[in-house]
Amino acid sequence: MLQRTLRLLTGLAALLLFASTACAAGTPIRIGGLFAVTGPASFLGEPERNTAQMVVNEINAAGGIKGRKLELVAYDTQGDATKAVQAVNRLIKEDKVCAIIGPSTTGDTMAVIPVAERARIPLISMAAGVKITEPVKKWVFKTAQNDGLAVEKIFEYLQKTHVRSVAILTVSDSFGSSGREQLKNHAAKYGITLVVDDTYGPKDTDMTAQLTKIRGSGAQALICWGTNPGPAIIARNAKQLGLKIPIFMSHGVSSKKFIDLAGEAAEGIILPSGRVIVADLLPNSDRQKKSLLAFVRDYQKHYRTEGDHFGGHAWDAIMLLKGALERGGDQPAAIRDQLERTRNFAGIGGIFNFSPRDHSGLTKDAFVLVAVKKHDWVLVK
After folding, report:
1. How many C-beta atoms lie closer than 10 Å to residue 45's C-beta?
2. HSE of 66 in the Cβ direction (CA atoms, 13 Å)?
3. Residues 127 and 181 in one domain
4. Is residue 255 part of a domain?
5. Are residues 155 and 253 in the same domain?
6. Distance between CA atoms of 169 and 154, rounded to whole angstroms?
7. pLDDT digits (tens, 9 = 90+) for 22-49
8. pLDDT tens digits, 318-346
């Protein structure tokens, strides 16, 4: 009797184990998304959300990851840090996600990092602030190129063109403050003197006063650091004032949206950008070109507009997660470990090489300089 009972229990345990395994095998892998789909940063969040869902759908159509579908649970932060924290808590506590991509902005990201770190959930930010990953935080990675790399790309060009006196005009939010810090930190290394260091508010609608001051300063160039609509207003104000010096923008306006907002005033403005907005102009030897063109065409097919620099951050985040899930499974700790081991991943934003000492994974070679010419982007040689 005892032996028969043991056999029955053993058989039942095996059946339960099979059922559990079968259930796990068929259960979707749930990942979270935090995107500023509405609000002032919607030009970042909308293409990011669209791209993330597009890539998830394509992965699922191709069979998923080891036979399991991906499920993207996404919330709109509206570019508001308080809403971002509420959403990340919901993703972790209620939706039980195994990893999160986003948020879209530096401020939102810095607000949610402590939550993700405490919960030990991998977070792949799509914002640019260097402090997101410096110093390294165990559970936090990013796909947007660091603002310090963008600064160096501009300064290299200014050094080459013998520009020494520069005015900077930065927005007074987390993105602008981080950019301002990097501009000040790197200037001396390139022999550049900042003759004006001024700011503007995220909701300001006229920067004529700051630009008038810059016009009389002797500056040989102006660097504006911000995200739309502020930089477009600055471009229009500068044209109205007849400001003749070259104007440089940050990678925070690296999309056609800036050109549309600034209109004719955008002509000639230079900025660092990922390669995606000039993909068709790249040499065939460029390691990213094939992926870039495929992404641009794919986004165009789905959304009737070109894939851009910001949507590319989400493409990279989903594909980095895909690689980590394929290599290590869906447990958060395994995902984190595999992300950190990512090497030579040719994404939209650049060639990623993560390590225990580097969770941003890119160098300044991830950037090219582009300029606006006839309402489009051209490469700056």
Report:
1. 29
2. 14
3. no
4. yes
5. yes
6. 14
7. 334 579 999 999 999 999 899 999 999 9
8. 999 999 999 999 999 999 999 999 999 99
